[in-house]
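REQUEST FORM: STRUCTURE PREDICTION
Request ID: SP-0412
Submitted by: Lab K.M.
Chain count: 1
Length (residues): 315
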Amino acid sequence: MILSTSNRRTIPLAGNSRGTSNHQPFVVIYDGPALAEHRMDVRDLAPALIAIADLFTSTNKELNGENAEVRLEVRGSFKAGSFHSELIFVQSLASQIRDLFAGPNAGAFSNAMAILGALGIVGGGGLIGLIRTLRGRKPRRIEQEGEQTRVWISEQESFTVDEVTYRLYLNRTVRVSLQKALSPLERDGIASFGIVRGNTIELTIENDELDVFASSDDPGEVVTDTIARKVLLLESVVFKDGNKWRVHDGTSAFFAALEDEQFLAKVDAGERFGKGDVLVVDLRQTQIVTDEGLRNEYRIVKVREHRAPLQPALI
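STATUS: Completed
RESULT:
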């Protein structure tokens, strides 16, 4: 296949109006006993190839905005050996876009290889590497460290990835397209998905990894994730495990999950609460964009103080 891009800008081009292009050929391989005769049901193949095209399109849009369009084409015939489909990823950039990428504010994704690397199709990292590291776990919070993003899996475990890699992880269209490209592995007798460049096996995904790449239960895109010291008025105290407490921050009331195990132990031991009591806490607020819109989630990660009702002198 050939993946090519073209400039969308309508401003006239100076000099030669032809764009520049770069390409990276690779072979997609589906393997397993069901493909021993080098044949594959078109009802499995066609959606998977469309998903691969959508994967490149959505990734290119995430990284390069509206500066380029992409398409994926099959080149030549299918090759023997399991089931091979030869693809070529081509990126074409008009001259102004090329000059923009070459300037002091150049983006890192003006070439096809960089995009393949961001996805993890080559290089062993990227989006696919991040998904494998998470192993289905959801990040508890994220912190920006320059061009790196620190991903916290728990209060003790974290790691860093490129900011661009995490952007792709948050892009639901990219994630769903990747999942659909792997959908033939759901069929009996199709065991693996692979990418080969030249004589090098760049990527292999086995069918027992499908759950890791599933995105159907994706809760949405985390747009902000912050922890701040807050004073909260208790409106409703719940003693049943897993239930949320209703609190008020002086502006609005909301439900917050209580995650401080030490404080929960005090509650279990009989800590007394009265009307108007307040907690001084470290409150984590996460804003998430879903198909239904924007929502906020609140978690009390640490209770610093449990005070009696507020008096004017305390304010």
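NOTES: The radius of gyration is 25 Å.
Reviewed by: T.R.
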